[in-house]
């Protein structure tokens, strides 16, 4: 993609701080550093987001997550890891090139807030909607 910042990083047109690279993926430090070590893992081939990828293509990306995440945790002394992937603007995607956020966690007040809100939905009705042809 001509205007994709991540494609430009992959091509070496824009500098990045790399933490992992192979033929299929690149992992580099997010410039925002939500927490120390906040890393982005991207496929080298451009996809708008995960929803545009096949199972095989996404498997090539996700198979790298455990190794990189564990290395970040071990070497930076993190106590946990949020692994986040956003699809489309409504879900928080701001760069439209598939990417996974690896956000090391050090304490409850370390700069990242991720909370779930409970709702009283009819789960059976939702499942029926999802599984209909």
TrEMBL record:
Chain location of the short sequence motif Histidine triad motif per the record: 97-101
Gene Ontology terms describing biological process: nucleotide metabolic process
GO terms, molecular function: catalytic activity
InterPro entries per the UniProt record, alphabetical: HINT, Histidine_triad_CS, Histidine_triad_HIT, HIT-like, HIT-like_sf
Gene3D superfamilies xref list: HIT-like (3.30.428.10)
Active-site residues, as the UniProt record annotates them: 99
HIT domain sequence ranges: 5-112
Name by which UniProt lists this protein: HIT family protein
């Amino acid at each position: 993609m001509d205007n994709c910042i991540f494609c430009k990083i992959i091509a070496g047109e824009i500098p990045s701080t790399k933490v992992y690279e192979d033929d299929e993926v690149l992992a580099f430090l997010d410039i925002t550093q939500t927490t120390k070590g906040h890393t982005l893992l991207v496929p080298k081939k451009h996809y708008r987001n995960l929803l545009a990828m096949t199972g095989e293509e996404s498997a090539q990306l996700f198979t790298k997550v455990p190794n990189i995440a564990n290395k970040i945790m071990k070497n930076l002394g993190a106590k946990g890891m949020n692994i986040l992937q956003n699809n489309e603007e409504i879900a928080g995607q701001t760069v439209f090139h598939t990417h996974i956020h690896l956000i090391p966690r050090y304490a409850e007040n370390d700069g990242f807030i991720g909370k779930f809100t409970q709702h009283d939905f009819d789960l059976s009705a939702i499942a029926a909607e999802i599984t209909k042809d």
